């Protein structure tokens, strides 16, 4: 029984030390080192079909993250005429994260000063997109 207790204490001590040293602060700028930015894929998009010139259109974007520390970071866009390719960059903040893979929601704001048909392509895999077609009047 004493041997099991000894191994249990060693195990708990090792885990405790691992948690204590798992997230180090940078002495130069005192910011947390446990921040990672990673491109994630869009799962679904909820968008209107039409909009008005010079008025913002709010598009709901759902994307997955790989653990509980993940949240929205920023959109990465490339533009070619009236087509935009949009990727989500997730920001993971924290050294100790839950291991679930939640779905996060954020809003993409589209605005243009030119009437026409626009194609917004949200990256949903390395080679696939969820496409939104907007007519701006």
Domain count, please report it.
1
* CATH class type: Mainly Beta
For the biggest sheet, the summary is: 6 strands, mixed
| SSE class | mainly beta
Query: Between the first and last Cα atoms, what is the distance in angstroms?
Result: 78 Å
Shape field: elongated
Number of discrete helical segments: 1
Low-confidence stretches: 16-30
Rg from alpha-carbon coordinates:
22 Å
Kindly report the CATH topology: Immunoglobulin-like
Order of helices and strands: HEEEEEEEEE
Q: Count all strands and give the number.
A: 9
What proportion of the residues form beta strands (DSSP E)? over 45%
The average pLDDT score comes to: 86
CATH architecture title? Sandwich
Helix content: 10-25%
Structure characterization notes:
The protein is mainly beta and 137 residues long. It has a single domain, classed as Immunoglobulin-like. The chain has one helix spanning 2-21; strands at residues 35-40, 42-46, 50-51, 57-64, 70-80, 83-93, 103-110, 116-123, 129-136. Strands 1, 3, 5, 6, 8 and 9 form a six-stranded mixed β-sheet that branches. Strands 2-4-7 form a three-stranded antiparallel β-sheet, with no helix packed on it. The termini are far apart. The model is unreliable at 16-30 (pLDDT under 50). It comes from Bizionia gelidisalsuginis.
């Amino acid at each position: 029984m004493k041997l099991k207790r000894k191994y249990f204490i060693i195990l708990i001590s090792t885990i405790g030390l691992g948690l204590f040293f798992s997230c180090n602060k940078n002495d130069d700028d005192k910011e947390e080192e446990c921040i990672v930015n990673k491109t994630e894929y869009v799962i679904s998009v909820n968008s209107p079909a039409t909009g008005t010139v010079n008025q913002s259109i709010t598009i709901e974007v759902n994307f997955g993250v790989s653990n509980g520390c993940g949240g929205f970071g920023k959109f990465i866009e490339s533009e070619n005429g009236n087509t935009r390719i949009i990727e989500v960059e997730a920001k993971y903040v924290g050294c100790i994260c839950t291991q679930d893979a939640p779905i996060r929601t954020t809003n993409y704001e589209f605005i243009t000063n030119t009437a026409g048909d626009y194609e917004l392509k949200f990256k949903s895999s390395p080679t696939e997109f969820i496409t939104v077609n907007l007519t701006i009047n």
